[in-house]
Amino acid sequence: MRALWKMTLVEAKLFWREPVGLFFTLVFPVMVLLLFSAIFGNGPIPGDQGLRMIDVMAPSYTGMVIGTTALLGLPITLAGYRQQGTLRRLRATPLHPSAILAAHVLVNLLMTGVGIMLLLLTARVVYDLRLPEAPLSVTLAFVLASLSFFALGFVLAGVLPNARTAQIVGQVVFFPMFFLSGAAGIQPDMFPVALRRVSDLLPLTYVVKLVQQLWIAGEWDLQALVVLLGVMVASILVSARTFRWE
Amino acid sequence: MEPVVEVVDLRKRYGKVVAVDGISFTVGRGEIFGIVGPNGAGKSTTVECLAGLREKESGTVSVLGLDPLKEGRKLRERIGVQLQEAALPDDIKVWEALDLYASFYRRSADWKILLEQWGLAPKRDTRFENLSGGQKQRLFIALALVNEPEIVFLDEITTGLDPQARRLTWDLVRKIRTRGAAVLLVTHSMEEAEKLCDRVAIIDEGRVVALDSPEALVREGDLEASVRLQGLDGFDVAALRTLDNVSRAGWEGDELVVYGHGPLLARVIVDLDHRGFTPSGVSVGRRTLEDVFVEKTGHLIRD
């Protein structure tokens, strides 16, 4: 336990010292929020009682924090660790491999939490975001969605040979998903039908759906929940088989 | 000497490539044991099998009486390892690395003392990427000692270091032994092995070609010393070959080279003087492990 705690602490410091990761987890989402809100404004949404643009957008943007951390930050860090020999060095200690993975999950969970808080706080202060119907459930959804995406990130981290390929593949996976899932604020129900089909295939779409539904209506989107749990289980099974330490 | 490492007929293949082809040796408590040989000779694979990081194909391996594969974590509690191509994150600070690695072990040394002992105290708050090659190497060794190990495995720790940093590292390795730990040193440098090790196993193409103390290996045969003489044009070499201490003599270019043992130089000079010859230049050489390697394998050690 002492090792896990120290490892998490050190990894948190390292995260804090890596400007690219910090940017994508903490700065980029806030930037997108401010830019898109400046473009789209914060008018009332027709038909919905008292809802304004920000109340739909801000919960969607949280998918961006989860996506960047899980698909860009985590695989780049771990693939880099493997490439450099950090994982090889750790394997020569009595530390259980699961402690290494657990530390990375904890740190990324923490940083995702900070990123989401920063995003929502900005939305609240600048655009008077309406508070969620069920704050505890929303928090639980953040954790579930994050874990599911981290598992996906471990699949990438396990098979990509180095930080550079992880960076490229991470971006290729993340950015289309970012725009098509609703995490960029543009909601898939405004897409043409064909594009909506694509959107339905992307895991991030279900993060957005899950969070939005809980935030606005206080209800669990069961389909989204099942999809995300499925992604988590499948990813864990795949990465357990494919993860390479060297 | 009580053995801390026992390897009998270790074999390992990667696909069709035979990396280790029946290696046997033992390491005693408190000994600095060297595994030397060219790159690709199977040295690192051997060490990885000993540390339980790689599965052997056949043979028996016992380290501190433990099976490295079945009791790997138990073993790694008691050994210190610095592997090749192993590193730390760029942004980790020296003290953080030591503090972190100390937390992995049930028993750990006070890393602040290690920091002092290895001359890293002034670099305590420096990030790994900003350390010099020698400082990185010292940090690696300090990390390998953080659990007060009974055996330390050091794989190519001076590769890429300048001569001064190398010498410094050698002193530090000798210091490890004074703490009572055995050191298993892997290197492709014959000079390093000769300077540091109590015993060395010379390995080539996955096999042990020679195993003894460096002194004994160098003394072995009658070619311990050599004398090179210049300015003896027209001298008949055959006369020298009859001397007691001379085992071989002949021309190498315009130099007359005499190999032998014992007080070779004195005998040769006196004999030349008797015959009325005085060389214009003389140099004396000692046989090195490098020469032993060439003799045993029939080829030069390639870097």
Largest interface: A-B, 22 and 24 residues
Q: How would you spell out the order of helices and strands of chain A? A: HHHHHHHHHH
Query: What is the gyration radius of chain B calculated from CA atoms?
Result: 23 Å
Low-confidence stretches of chain B: none
Give the % helix of chain B.
25-40%
Low-confidence stretches of chain A: none
Query: Biggest β-sheet of chain B, characterized?
Result: 6 strands, mixed
Strand content of chain A: under 5%
Terminal-residue CA separation of chain B: 34 Å
Shape of chain B: elongated
- What is the multimeric organization of the chains shown? heterodimer
Find the structural class of chain A using helix and strand composition: mainly alpha
* Count of individual domains of chain B: 2
Shape of chain A: globular
CATH class group of the largest domain in chain B: Alpha Beta
Indicate the mean pLDDT of chain B: 89
Word description of this protein:
The complex is a heterodimer of chains A (246) and B (303). Chain A has helices spanning 2-17, 19-40, 53-84, 86-91, 97-127, 135-159, 163-180, 193-200, 203-217, 222-242. In chain A, helix 2 (19-40) packs parallel to helix 5 (97-127). Chain A has one domain. The mean pLDDT of chain A is 93. Chain A is built from 10 helices and no strands. By secondary structure, chain A is mainly α. Chain A is globular. Chain B has 303 residues and is of the alpha/beta class. Chain B folds into 2 domains: 3-218, Rossmann fold; 224-286, Alpha-Beta Plaits. In chain B, 32% of the residues lie in helices and 29% in strands. Chain B contains 11 helices and 13 strands. A 6-stranded mixed β-sheet of chain B has the order 5-6-7-3-8-9, sandwiched between helices. A 4-stranded antiparallel β-sheet of chain B has the order 11-12-10-13. Chain B has a 3-stranded antiparallel β-sheet with strand order 2-1-4, covered by helices on one side. The longest helix of chain B is centred in the middle third of the chain and has 16 residues, at 163-178. The model of chain B has no long low-confidence stretch (mean pLDDT 89).
